[in-house]
Amino acid sequence: MKILNNVSQFIVGIVFIFSGFVKAIDPLGSTYKFVDYFEAFGMDFFNSIAFPLAIILSSLEFIIGFSILFSIKKRLTTRLLLIFMVFFTVLTFVLAIYNPVTDCGCFGDAIIMTNWQTFWKNIFLMIFTIILVINRNNFEVKWNNVKQWSYLSVAFLLIITISVYYYNNLPLIDFRPYKVGTYIPEKMVVPENAQKAEYETILKYQKNDEVKEFTLENLPDSTWEWVSTENILISKGDDPKIHDFTIETLFGNDITEIVLNDDKFTFMLIAYDLTKTNTKNISGINELAGFVQESGKCNFICMTSSLESDINDFKEKTNASYTFFNTDEITLKTIIRSNPGIVLLKKGTIIGKWHHRNIPSTEDIVNEYLENPKYQYTAADKEEVLALSEN
Asked: Beta-carbon neighbour count of residue 227 at 10 Å?
């Protein structure tokens, strides 16, 4: 029983610490996931509390895992653990049935799970949770009450500090498909060894007012008249890692291939919603834009999902002199956890990302990129992009 109890402590503790940590280093990702759920259930009025809920959830998971793993405040912690597991097991069962959001977000972007996978994961953890609750009085306590509360306070301050810091900076670890070093065109293609989608074809035929269903292996004779054909998904195939990356002019012209194949450096200012964009550091962004454009070695564009009227308002408000293009809002939120943020692209490869609080200096840009031998470039047809934006 002691071994079983120790195994339960280790499994539950590690899972909860990991889940809380990966959410804490990407609090905006958890915020977006809460918003997705609120909107899916028609509860948009809760969107304003999505961020504090993200902080609370990651902190609670981390604290529970920490306490379980180190046998701190065993009675209080096991009760919280049981309440937590019962609530989320029931919730994930409902989500698995109705599937309002395909990715549960329980491990942030570190591990992507479907709602059914999340439900069975919770059932698995519930077994160890029950063991811990039953044996809560058999935990080995190594510290007195004062030390236990002290360690809990330190853990709480640590996870809150991590969340706040990475809210104001880019995540410590980028689990998304747009991390630095990614060659975007490669991620937009399904690998040859990927699992293919499987479908079952159902054909309906009619004879003498009778309608029957047949398969391709069991077709009727010529006396039957075809009515309809339906393809039913049996097994979902693998999707490309990046399947929604497009860049369009305000007039609807797709310039994705032009940007991805440009030999020049392309600085992309990512601002998914210009009405919500933080303009505190916009002067630094404009200075960078002016410098790289004058260098002749770089393009500087802004990618947003905002309407043209909002773009014009933003230009007037910030004196932005760069060209604006449209991209899907969810894609922009996935590319970088900052509004605005900057992504540096060259020949389709992401070679740099910056939060708006950490805009690189012109000296760093020159030394690390423009004059770096590993980033050699040739003249590109920038006029083609600009011409499309004006048509």
From this structure: 12
**Residues of 128-137 as b/e, b for ≥16 C-beta within 10 angstroms?**
bbebbeebbe
The one-letter code for the residue type at 334 is: T
pLDDT digits (tens, 9 = 90+) for 351-380: 999 999 999 888 888 888 888 877 764 444
pTM: 0.81
Whether residue 235 contacts residue 197, with contact meaning beta carbons closer than 8 Å, is answered with yes
> Nearest 5°: phi and psi at 272?
-60, -30
Residues 324, 250 contacting (CB under 8 angstroms)? yes
Task: Give span(s): CATH 3.40.30.10, the chain.
Answer: 256-390
Which residues make Cβ contacts (< 8 Å) with residue 328, sequence separation at least 6?
244, 246, 305
Q: Is 234 exposed, middle or buried (0-12, 13-18, 19+ CB in 10 A)?
A: exposed
Class of domain 256-390: alpha beta
When pLDDT is averaged across residues 313-324 and rounded to a whole number, the result is: 92
Q: How far is CA 153 from the centre of its chain?
A: 30
Q: How many residues does the chain have?
A: 391
Helix (H) or strand (E) segment spanning residue 334: helix 329-335
Contact 72, 148 (CB under 8 A): yes
What is the token pair recorded at 236? 């979902």
- Report the interhelical angle of 2-24 vs 50-69 (nearest 10°): 150
CA 234, 239, 245, 251: dihedral to nearest 10 degrees? -30
How far is Cα 345 from Cα 348, in angstroms, rounded to an integer? 6
Beta partners for 235? 198
